[in-house]
Amino acid sequence: MTYQLDLLDIQGNVLRAYGRFRYPAARYVFFNIRDGAKGRAFVAALTRRVTTAVQWGEGPDKLPPPEWTLNVAFNYQGLKELDLPRESLIGFSPEFVAGMKDRKDILGDDGPSAPEHWDPIWQHNRETREHDVHIFVSINGLMPLPKDAKPAAVQAAVNDAKARVEAGYRWLLEQVAAQQGGVALLGGHRGDNGELLDYQDVQAVLENGVPTSKEHFGYTDGIGDPVFEGVPYDAERINGRGKQLANGQWAPLAAGEFLLGHTDEALEYPPAPSPLLLARNGTYMIYRKLHENVGTFERYLDEHGQRYPGGKELLAAKFVGRWRDNGAPIVKAWDDASKARFDADYKAADGHGKDQLLSNFTYDEDMSGGRCPFSAHIRRINPRASLEFTRDEQDPAKVCGAFSVSEGAFDTPGALANRRRVLRRGLPYGTVKDRSRDDGNHGIIIMMLNADINRQFEFVQQQWINYGNDFKAGNDKEILLGNHSQSEHFPSKAVLQVDPASDDAPYILPRLPRFVETRGGEYFFVPSLTALRMIAAGTVDPT
Amino acid sequence: MSNIAGKAYAMNVITPIRWYTAWLNKLIFWVALQRPATLKGLITLSLIHYARWVIIGRDQFPHVHPSQPRETLKYSYMLFFSNFNGSWDQYVDSFTFAIPSGLDMFWKWNVRYSKSVSLTPFHKYIRYNQLDTLHYYNAYPLATSNDVKSARIVKAKLLDFDSATRDASDDDFAKQYRTLLRDLQHDLGDMYPTPIVSMSAYQVERRQRWHEGQLDGSKH
Amino acid sequence: MGNLSGNAYALTVLSPIKPGIIADEQIAYADKVRSILQGWNGLPNSPMTAVPQTYLCRYFVLDNVYTESQPGGSAPDTLNDWLPVVPDWLRRAAMPAHDQLKSRYLVFSANVYVGPSGDIAPYLRGMWQAIRKEVESIWQYCYGFDEVKDADGFAAYIQRCALPASLFFVGSNDEPLPEQLKALYIKQQFARFAVDNQGLPTATLRQNFQAFMKQIAPHELATPTWEPGKYRLP
């Protein structure tokens, strides 16, 4: 029997990356609760408008997509201020209780990423009661279908989406006003000119007025989002996004990897607070504001693009594992000929075909990293089955820079990856006005969802992004997101492997600068609709 | 306490075995020794410097002096010592994800072993029976097992290259140097201090630091 | 023999600690041992850095055998699930019994290079010679240790306290420690060389390589190399 989720009980942002459903703009707003009872009344008002994961469309059990979505989450302090019983509070995970700032040493948020450089809202969070972030609200605006495909029409549609976000925001402010000081909006998000804004705006990067799924470095984002059991609108997206099986097939991941109250890949319920109704269908969300040093990126890419034998665009593709023009995975398009083949196939494919071309691949033919380097973004974030690898090291003379699949070594080929997956949501913020400068207001807001922050998000961040031992790369970090060393004495580098059968030498990226810096963030809990109603009513009772 | 020394974690686990089934464990270990394929998962994970299993019969605790009372135990015991890279969670998790049946094979006959799947009971089983190390010494705190293995390869390749290219032409030297780098393209990872493994370990490390220098590496 | 894997040796030592008390410190011998070992963590580096051929080693005090257990899960338990006729007393009779050690044990577990001879005694004699004072400071509280007067005596005593391993897994390698350390040094240096010399003309590369080989002196184990137990690169 197919796995069923209660779509009306799960918040819509958990199962949907809204950007993919024609919501190209959003606003994130944060609140401080001044009075518990009024805070609960505020939550009650929001809950009635919260967007669920219900199927959109016409027909039974379906609803039309809303003009603007609304989703809600709380951090630990927020749940405390809403007067959740202590017995429930102690059931949340230690890292959630501690918060992102406290975990900076685990996350590698040091140097320019350290909390003292974060946006004021995040700097002040968890310092004083009055400035603590408690509630997260997100509003995404639906883009109407443009009249035609001309840029002017598309631009108008994008503007409509933004206007809808504004409408949602006005509604939200009315709910705040209704509580007469019981809930305060927290400002302190840095804007374009260093001014402080009351909210964090995000929107898809436009190319000639048309929204793209690219971020400011030019890479397509969010292709490899995991697919798990019971999500009806992902049924055709399993290949390449679920878990890789020994027979070459793909299966959806267990729901409990992303939703509390469901069994996970270890056949058990993930640790969760009690009562069950508080936890079930809820999940943890990691909110992170990442500034992109566009100037540094462009300079580094230019400098090494001139020296790198494959040229600048191939080098850019090596950083991430995907080509910047159409997102082609480099394991499928590793040189001019294969890229041309991919492009032709891609052009000819329908929507589903395109999606499969981008997402459905393995590293089985690239165990040595000659195509996709071991430190490339997508290989580090989701190594698929590539960590079941080995080489014969008994005789050094036989070692040749090649690895092969260590067939049957693990219970399942993706054993080391399947429990480290995270759902990724979010959009870019700001615009790049000068590609030679770092100091503009541009980056991405990334929101990651998982059932266990420590096992999933923090592990990937610490072990795979900021460290490389699982990839036999010592301390070498992931190229794009790694917290590269600021020390002259111990600079960071990355090795771009080559085909072991070729006559080439690997290219080493020396003295990697920080391309991305953390500007704030926090750990949140995204409750189910049932839990929201109980929190609002003050009836959560683990007795 | 000091379960951590640089990039290595010292795990000690003691678990009871019924005295009359201890031979089964010994047999399994003997088979594992004869058939290296049984250890393929461990080798592929490549997280362990050295590990051992010691079975102590219930009347085999060392007795070294007439005045020492002899042990009278109901069970025999299995002691497991491991030197692995990463944090406790990372290690235990990687093992249960990757080689659950291998773990079960070694621990199956231990009293009340929970099996390696599901994860939480297995975590608890190990935690309940884990003995903390007081003092842990590691000759190469900056190196993982991967590094130790790859260092041997780097050294050998480098010496071969050196002797093979002494009299080579410049072109040949360049070609062979490319080959050297290509052969070693997975062996050039830097060995810098490890990211901290857990916040609690970090707290302890700050209080009882017995390695010279600063934790943040700012003192060079 | 299970203790040996190639040239590497798994030494597992359980030395029974006498039940005495140091009256003026109000501390039992076993707790004193524990406290001394904890004190080693506050030194600039471990005394074990001075003991040749020690890859990794650890010390702890075994107070008693296992402390806790999982509920349920034994055969009568499963039978009880299947067959309601299996009485509950039978299920409970299979629950783990309490076991009590009569002595507390100092546990010393080391992974060391012993070479082709497979004999651990030379290592132990080396340990005595290197850190006799530290060895005596902890082992003095153990049964039978007062008879140890010299390196041979120590080696013999430790071997009486040693237990055989059923399986010894060597995941790194079994080279002598100075070889391992030298190789690690070379690996780190060569990675840096590869970065610094990327893209240089062959003639320059060649020149630099010769200088590099001279500088790292690959056949000199003593220096330059990594010192044992170093947490920071120079």
TrEMBL record, chain A:
GO terms for cellular component: cytosol. Its cofactor is heme b. PROSITE patterns: DYP_PEROXIDASE. It holds the Pfam family DyP_N. Keywords: Iron, Metal-binding, Oxidoreductase, Peroxidase. Residues 9-125 form the DyP dimeric alpha+beta barrel domain. The keyword Protein transport does not apply. InterPro entries: Dimeric_a/b-barrel, DyP_N, Dyp_peroxidase. The keyword Membrane does not apply. GO terms for molecular function: heme binding; metal ion binding; peroxidase activity. This is DyP dimeric alpha+beta barrel domain-containing protein. It comes from Andreprevotia lacus DSM 23236.
From TrEMBL, chain B:
It comes from the Bacteria. This is Uncharacterized protein. It comes from Andreprevotia lacus DSM 23236. The lineage of its organism: Bacteria, Pseudomonadati, Pseudomonadota, Betaproteobacteria, Neisseriales.
TrEMBL record, chain C:
This is Uncharacterized protein. It comes from Andreprevotia lacus DSM 23236.
